[in-house]
Amino acid sequence: MKALLTTLVACLFLVSIPMETFSVRIADRGESEVTKTDGDTVTRLLDTLSLPYLPRLGLKDHTDLILEKLSGLIKAWMNQTNALPSIEKSIPRLIVKLRPSGSGERLSKMLDSAINTKFLMETIFSNIYAVTFLDDIDLSRVIDVLKAFPSVEYVEIDQVCKLMSTYPNDPLFPQQWSLNSSTDHDIDAPEAWDYERGDKEVVIAVIDTGVDYYHPDLASNIWINSDEIPGNGIDDDNNGYIDDINGWNFIFNDSLAFDGNGHGTGCAGIIGAVGNNSKDIAGICWNCSIMPVKCFPDTGVTSFASIVAKGIVYAVDNGADIISMSFGTYGDSRVLRDAIRYAYGKGVILIAAAGNDNTSLKSYPAGYPEVISVGATDEQDKKADFSNYGSWIDVAAPGDQILSLAPYNNTQQMTGTSAACAHVAGISALLMSFNDSVDAEVIRTLLKSGAEKIDSSVYVGVGRVNAFRSLQIFADVVSRLNESLDDAVVSGSVVEIYGTASGNNFSNYTLYYGAGIYPSSWNKICSSSSKVEDGLLGIWNISTLPDGVYTIKLSVRGDSGYYYNDTAVLTINNAINIWHVGGGGAGNLSTIREAVHNSGDGDTIYVHPGVYRESIIVDRGISIVGEDRGSTIVMQPSSAPFSLLPAFYISHDGVVIDNFSISGAIAIVCEDVRDVTISNNTISSLLGIALVSSEDIVIEHNLISNVTSIPGGVGILALPFGMGALFDPSVMFPWIYSSHHFYGGL
Q1: Of these residues, 208, 259, 486, 547, which one is catalytic?
Q2: Is-catalytic flag, 608?
Q3: Cα(132)–Cα(672) distance, rounded to whole angstroms?
Q4: Tens digits of per-residue pLDDT, 472-495?
Q5: For residue 605, what are the β-bridge partners?
Q6: Which of 32, 158, 212, 263 is the catalytic position?
Q7: What is the CATH number of the domain that holds 101?
Q8: Which domain holds residue 129?
Q9: How far is CA 17 from CA 328, 334, 725, in A?
Q10: Do 529 and 512 lie in a common domain?
Q11: Under a CB-based contact definition with an 8 Å cutoff, are residues 691 and 666 in contact?
Q12: pTM listed for this prediction
């Protein structure tokens, strides 16, 4: 086995869901057919894809050998379709968490006795280990073996995380519009600096490609480990890291956390370039301390979740107050989640980029409830066209063509939610400098309550952050709705609303609702003068309200008279509806994605003929039906030609996809669902249908063929684990691949 097929989906899905059994029913075999391809060519195609950087654990020769596999075949395919980016491939690597009764030595013996192959073990933290296999190995068998041991708490594929920024070649702007602009589409930094300019005692860890700690506009703001004596080769502070004077490099496992890429230095410059020093730019927090934590290589934009997790734990254990994370994965990695919870439990403020794929699909770590998730705005104060969106995002911040620093005494422009994340980290550092006695939830409340409304047809948080307003309203108040309300579909007569309304400066709270994602008016639900800590805030009567999208607002009044707000977007669905897309009829919607967002369980979306360049997340039990298979076409979005998001990503039970022509790199993905029907479709893609941790899937009357003229591709792939585990290059048309057994073609 080779960990190769991950390259087809790893950048986008990388989901590690508990492994469940599944079943697939193929109906009407005679009616369906797929294009027959050469399996050897599939293998050659997949062998040419690039790998994420392999940590130097005595594996230099192995790494060089793997990297020598790069060739021009995938580039030829990319030139032909203009559909795929440089795709990163995962090597065979597992994360294993042991129960308290387990030990690393015992795990090593388990592997030695059960698996006849070479491997390396690396301690991540808290009884969690990364196991890298040096030879071909059937990971599904290894997972099954390890799960059988009582001392193993969980096993997962090590996810691949990618940085959330791009580097356009546009000329640099002469000023930092995001801090101060004539249009006032900025964070009002000069006004904020009248309140606070930063404190050296506030430490922001930048988990990234490292930081140029010699840069003249950063050097005096670089964190120094005063308990370590530089250059003596001794771990003076007994933290497990030798000579970590200015952070740590988790790629090479040494103390040189220097940035040879530029991404990390760019983020650090936005957060904390030295201010008022007549050099280059001004950071948001003029006088804070930047801790470089290098978890991404200079040569690429991906790393393993386990490496990132180690970086998070290092930052927490060495005094970071804030962690800025301008990276993400679309997979819910348990080792990353454990590290996030560890940091949150220690009181660290966690901030992460939402992602750059213009999708509502939740990315991680931004999608974890402990993390402040950040979308991006442009200079017109609108949602940046690349920014992810959805009710899971807390706030937006400037992220388009942002002037910052670059290694070797240079400057650069950054575009992406990476830059937006850095803005929020910088503002958080100002707030912590102003008063460090408050916790992470107070900081979240201040950021959201100080935000300004933006122009967006989709939800990108409560608004664009404003440093001045957040400082101006500073108080110990928490206003937070429970994350279960985000993008919920509710029905019945009443909805129970849970959350937190508290703080030392708490006075009272009121719940409101309004129509739409950014309501123009609000209706009161209830109010109370009693504090609530993660409990029932009120009951909302929805029995007389029409179906549709609504926003709930929790408004907590502080003792100064100011109101601190949080919002959640949800859908009321008490009726079965038929939605029409395209066709020009009165009331018809223009996109399938919009129809899905407006729909509720049991609804039907009827799509009229046309070309729909969309990636559609189907997160409710609906039927989506094309009027005519030949002329109702769903293609990869033209606005994101380098995305591997599928045409349909199904994350809810009971979905029907019927009567479409679907094309692009990946057509349909079903993840952790059941009772889904895919019928009467013509599918032309590199990966036709992926069934992951799913069961009772009906696939009938479909024509599946390869989108490329280069032989290679996968028709139907069924696996009992997350998308990050799609690994076997031997899958070929016309086979259905399930676990490690082949079943006949269609």
Answers
A1: 208
A2: no
A3: 26
A4: 999 999 999 999 998 888 988 999
A5: 579, 624
A6: 263
A7: 3.30.70.80
A8: 91-157
A9: 17, 9, 10
A10: yes
A11: no
A12: 0.71
